[in-house]
Write the structure tokens for this entry.
Amino acid sequence: MKKIALTLVITVSLFSCNGVKNVNTSNIASAATLLSSLSSNSTVQQISSLFSLLDTNKDEAISSTEAIGTVSDNFSVLDTDSNSSLNLTELTGLLGLLK
């Protein structure tokens, strides 16, 4: 019973957060699909598309909470200026990691 109550509290809390309300799940799914298709032959245009999909709040940066998959796993490596966000140039560094 405690597990059910805790699950309900967490679920209600998550859905009351503005960040969860504003997440476009189709963008996340599209980003995940694009990310899984990236290879060493990928282009900067594909990275640019990925950037647009991941930048859910449209602030021209990807935060660690917006990052998924390989981007999240390598966030600290890609964040070359250590400002806790990725710009398009830094995300392009993902191409080097795919080789």
